[in-house]
Amino acid sequence: MPEQDDMGREFDIKWADGAEYKEPSARARMLAARWKENPPKPQPFRADPGPRAPRHSSWRSTAIVLGTVAVIILLLGYADFRPY
Question: Rounded CA gap, 43 and 49, in Å?
Fold first, then answer.
C-alpha cells in the first residue's frame, strides 16, 4: 500500500512557491559567508577592458592571404610541369 500512496502523490509547484521561507542556495550561502569578512570591491557595470594591441589593416591581411595562395599555386604548377 505505501507504494500506491507514493505513486498517487503529486508535487504541487504552486504549494512550493507559496512557501513563506525559501532557503538560499549553497552558492549564495558561501558567498554571503565569504563577503561578510572580505566584501568585494565595487566595480563598474562594464569595466574598461584596457589598452588593445594595434590591429592590422584588413587590406594587409587580405594581401598576405592572396599572396600566399598565389605562391602555393605557382609552386604546385612548377612541380606539375617539371620534367622528371
Answer: 12
